[in-house]
């Protein structure tokens, strides 16, 4: 059964609440203008290279906050799949890449190639979000598929031909398709800078999954940081198995009792087309 809310997902809960609180504090303190990056004048004219490290602090408008919260809440299934320790380790291990690569690419590659037309990188953890989304795309399977067809059925066709025609021309979607709409809106909200951050995050998340980032996939944060006890080897495995048995013990014990009662009443099959009492 799927767990609701933030059950077994404390790091995702922190991401959701920090996204809302960070944007609220930036609005109250009127510091939103210190978060985004404009290569000219912020970097080349004023030398504000510290913006390379702070632009992912929070989003600066309510629409982006809404779509980011919806996406982080949807991605909590990754934390349940990996465990809170690996989930937190992923965020910290990829943070240098998701933080530094977008502004560096914007400053030294995209702006010179476009003759200064692409000059703006919006604030917000878009790269972190899309790094998680890449792993959600690869690790979480869909449960069903469905097709949407905008073409009407022709009266001159038979039912079989019409069905085959509609099926070949229809758009195939899955149970996960709607989950990509909020992050897609987030990637296009302040085009092209937001799309750059989203693309870099997707590449970093894919590289992490394929173990292309040096040492990132094997590094883990201490267990106490996510509320886990320090357990290693067979001791940790045994603790997890014991926890699973405790959760399933009630249901399995009830099923065993029912089967035992049925066997005692009806006896056992002895062959020859008759039932015996098993004695």
Fill in the keyword field for this structure.
Rhomboid-like fold, serine-type endopeptidase activity, transmembrane helix, two-stranded antiparallel sheet, 279 residues, 58% helix, mainly alpha, 2 domains, single chain
Compact overview of the structure:
This protein is mostly helical and 279 residues long.
Describe the model.
Its main location: membrane. The structure is a single chain. The protein is mostly helical. It folds into two domains: 186 residues, Rhomboid-like fold; 27 residues. Helix 4 runs antiparallel to helix 9 and helix 5 crosses helix 6. The longest helix has 34 residues. The radius of gyration is 27 Å and the shape is globular. It starts with 9 loop residues before the first helix and ends with a strand. About 5% of the residues have low confidence.
Count of helical stretches: 11
> How are the strands of the biggest sheet laid out side by side?
1-2
Radius of gyration: 27 Å
Beta-strand residue fraction: 5-15%
Main structural class:
mainly alpha
**Order of SSEs:** HEHHHHHEHEHEHHHEE
Largest beta-sheet details:
2 strands, antiparallel
Q: Residue-averaged pLDDT, rounded?
A: 82
Number of domains: 2
> Uncertain spans, ≥5 residues at pLDDT below 50?
263-275
* Helical coverage, percent range: 55-70%
Count of individual beta strands: 6
Per CATH, the architecture of the largest domain is Up-down Bundle
Distance between the termini: 41 Å
- Please write the CATH class name of the largest domain: Mainly Alpha
What would the principal axes of the Cα set say about the shape?
A: globular
């Amino acid at each position: 059964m799927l767990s609701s809310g933030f059950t077994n997902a404390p790091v995702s809960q922190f991401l959701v609440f920090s996204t809302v609180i960070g944007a609220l504090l930036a609005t109250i303190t009127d510091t939103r203008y210190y978060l985004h990056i404009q290569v000219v004048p912020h970097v080349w004219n004023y030398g504000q290279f510290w913006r390379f490290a702070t632009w992912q602090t929070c989003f600066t408008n309510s629409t982006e906050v809404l779509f980011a919260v919806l996406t982080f809440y949807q991605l909590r299934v990754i934390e349940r799949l990996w465990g809170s320790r690996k989930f937190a380790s992923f965020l910290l291990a990829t943070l240098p890449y998701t933080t530094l690569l977008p502004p560096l690419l914007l400053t030294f590659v995209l702006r010179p190639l476009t003759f200064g037309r692409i000059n703006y990188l919006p604030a917000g953890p878009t790269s972190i979000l899309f790094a998680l989304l890449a792993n959600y795309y690869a690790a979480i399977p869909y449960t069903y598929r469905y097709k949407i067809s905008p073409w009407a059925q022709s009266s001159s066709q038979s039912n079989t031909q019409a069905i085959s025609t509609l099926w070949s021309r229809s758009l195939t979607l899955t149970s996960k398709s709607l989950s990509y709409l909020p992050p897609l809106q987030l990637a296009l909200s302040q085009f092209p800078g937001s799309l750059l951050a989203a693309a870099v995050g997707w590449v970093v998340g894919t590289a992490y999954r394929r173990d292309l980032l040096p040492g990132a996939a094997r590094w883990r944060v201490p267990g106490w940081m996510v509320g886990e006890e320090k357990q290693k080897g067979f001791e940790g495995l045994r603790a997890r198995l014991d926890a699973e048995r405790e959760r399933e013990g009630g249901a399995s014990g009830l099923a065993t009792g029912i089967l035992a009662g049925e066997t005692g009443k009806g006896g056992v099959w002895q062959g020859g087309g008759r039932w015996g009492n098993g004695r």
